[in-house]
Amino acid sequence: MANLSPAQPCEDEALSLDQVVFAYPDVPCVLNEITLNIQPGERLGVIGPNGAGKTTLFLTICGVLRPSSGAVRLFGKRVIPGEFRPEVGLVFQNPNDQLFCPSVWDDVAFGVENLGYGEAEVAERVTQTLEQLGILEYRDRPPHHLSGGQKRMVAIAGVLAMQPQLILYDEPSANLDLRSRRRLIEFLHQASQTLIIASHDLELILELCDRLILLDEGTVIADGSPVEIMSDRPLMEAHGLEKPSGLLSHPPR
Ligand SMILES: Nc1ncnc2c1ncn2[C@@H]1O[C@H](COP(=O)(O)OP(=O)(O)OP(=O)(O)O)[C@@H](O)[C@H]1O
């Protein structure tokens, strides 16, 4: 079941990681020779216990962190740490890390303005995105006055307005109530971009993703079908995870 396919870099891949290693000064080996290829349109879930390296993986893909060795490529072109790559967008785990402008409008416009678009194009993209997410009514509100769930939708809008082809969602359903979580899932179902979703919400991953990796201690332990990996109780429990209750009807392994 666990299929650790070797890297076959290809121009058409949305993302490829070739033996990527990363260490923080005080934590050695946070990413341990990660090799991964993702095709355009794929929806990849990333699960793993706390500290497995999910957020670090995302920051490395975006070029915020520099790998100690190995290569990251987005749409065939190597990621240079520190270089802005508009093809990829990251929705942070904590929206407070992402939102900083005096109004929702300014926050969502910020990224588009930095792409160099003129006022009319910026206004059109911001309006469209806020409408698409059903949050146009917040446009003049300060983001720090919004609830956690509302802030998350604004953070998503800020990324979507830049129209990236690959979007990384770090714990998108954290702190959402049932209705907001459902709305987010429905929204993500309709997404046309390539998605990578890191989450402890296994049911959300099951609903949305066509492929899953299980990460632990910076190592890809399994790569394959979400149902198959999550149904493997010994595998899940060995890595601090539980088989989701929605899969209990599957035969025990
Ligand atoms: N800025 C940092 N400096 C030093 N160590 C860090 C830093 N950020 C994360 N770490 C460490 O790197 C490891 C991986 O952390 P990371 O946040 O990537 O894990 P995660 O899988 O996203 O965890 P969680 O599920 O709790 O969000 C952990 O041991 C963590 O303590």
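The chain has a mean pLDDT of 91.
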